[in-house]
Amino acid sequence: MRRVTLIALVALLAPSAAFADRLALWNIVHNQCAPAAVKGDALPAPCLDIGKRSAAIKDRNGAEQVLVIPTERMTGIEDPAVLAPDAPPIFADAWNERALLRKYLPGAPQGDGLALAVNSAEERSQDQLHVHVDCLKPDVAKTLAGFTPAANWAPMSAALAGHTYFARAVVDLSVNPFKLLAELPDAAAQMGEWTLAAVPQGDHFVLLAGRHNGPGGGHSEDLQDITCAIAR
What we know:
The protein is an alpha+beta fold. It has helices at 3-13, 15-18, 24-39, 90-96, 138-145, 177-181; strands at residues 47-50, 54-58, 66-70, 114-118, 131-136, 154-155, 166-170, 194-201, 204-211, 224-225. Strand 1 (47-50) and strand 2 form a beta hairpin. Helix 1 packs across helix 3.
């Protein structure tokens, strides 16, 4: 059996062992999803979909969580390629793949109640950029429901899942959220220390940026709920 197939199976069946390989996600996308798509074959598990610049796979965590991953090699949030003019629209791609959650949980939200999250370099297990697509924790959703973001970055007064964040509104995710993150003081030079999330709110999105090493920490995956209680 090919090594890449073994990686995929282990990723599904033995989480701790699978993610000892920090390129497991890259190997799945590059060696399984992409070749199958080129050949016109059915996508092998855990591949779910593949587009021009990204692929979606079922995450090993949670009933419904999906990961959206660039099909080009990008280490993570700190990779200079995320700020390049031709950077893949990974947040927009992740948003467009949200319907995949209903493959596993028919009641999964498709708008409010969802979150897209990218972890900091210090708080990730994989060295290939990926966006977690999953449900918001109910308490986080409740806090954000009463929050009106500004058009530019401003610190939130309320903590979310125990962390503090800067927030701003964007109309849609066709903007590059990483470039907006880089506008925060010191962020462009220390991108790996930051975590970034996008949460739909009515007719716009709230971007949430937290510094892992800053006051109150910051870990955007903590905003998500792998049980999707908000839909149950």
